[in-house]
C-alpha cells in the first residue's frame, strides 16, 4: 500500500513537472504596439439586471424595428389572386 501511494505521488509530481516544462517552453506572442484592448476601454452601459421573462422577451421582439423590417418580407399583396370563387 505504501509503495502504491509513493508511486502515485511520484507520477503526479512527474506530470506537474512535465506541464511546467511545457508552459515554460511555450513561445510568447509578440506584443503589438498601438492596439487598444476593447475590454479595457468599453464600460457596461448599466448594471441593472434586465427582465428576461418570456412575456417581456416576446413583447420586446414584437415591438423591435428589426423584427418589423424582416416581417415586411412576407407582406404580400393577394388582391390580384383569383381564387376561382364566382360571386
List the helices and strands and how they pair.
Blueprint (H helix, E strand, L loop, with lengths): L1 H24 L12 H4 L12 H9 L2 H7 L16
Please give a quick description of this structure:
This protein is mostly helical and 87 residues long. 51% of the residues lie in helices and 0% in strands.
Question: Main traits of this protein?
Answer:
87 residues; mainly alpha; 51% helix; 0% strand
Average of per-residue pLDDT values: 78
Approximately how much beta-strand content do the residues carry? Answer: under 5%
Q: Which H/E pattern describes the elements?
A: HHHH
Low-confidence stretches: none
Distance between the termini: 97 Å
User: What is the chains' assembly state?
Assistant: single chain
Q: Which class do the helix and strand fractions yield? A: mainly alpha
Rounded radius of gyration (Å): 32 Å
Shape: elongated
Number of strands: 0
Q: What is the number of helical segments per DSSP (H or I, 4+ residues)? A: 4
In helices, the fraction of residues equals: 40-55%
